[in-house]
Amino acid sequence: MNLKELYQEIILDHGKNPRNLRKTENFNKDAKGHNPLCGDKVHIYLKLNENKKVEDISFEGEGCAISMASASIMTDLVKGKEENDVKEIVNDFLEMIKQKNGIDTKLLKDDEKTKLMCLSGVKQYPMRVKCATLSWHTLTSAIDRSQNEINTENIEL
What we know:
It is globular, with a radius of gyration of 14 Å. It has helices at 3-16, 65-78, 83-98, 110-117, 126-144, and strands spanning 29-35, 40-48, 54-62, 149-151. The longest helix has 19 residues, at 126-144. β1 and β2 form a beta hairpin. The chain is an alpha+beta fold. α1 packs across α2 (65-78) and α3 (83-98) packs antiparallel against α5 (126-144). The model has no long low-confidence stretch (mean pLDDT 92). It has one domain (3-144): Sufe protein. Chain: A (Alpha-Beta Complex).
């Protein structure tokens, strides 16, 4: 199996069988996101403990396979991480999607980096970048409590 096939398999798996697709009980932060071009919608639920560690994270929503896979992968990777580490992972992911060729953060294991890299192919399709980044921007909004709803039309790529 080549790398492209592996990436496609990961996206299809997470798209068809999303992890953490539910509403977190006793969440203390949340945000909604919408991509009007594709119709993707996501609601991120976050439960941070007193030490600002992600005790639980989940999402509800609907959308294309890229959007659902990205949200699923994101929730898997940030669960159990400190808030500052989550922000670093989000920033590294967004930079990779927009311009870089890889994931630089030392906060993720190699297999976790591979999961993120499977989304790197969307760079070739600018309309799909918003699908892949919607949940990540929404997570940032939930952490910072910056907006009630993220709209990809208002996000600079």
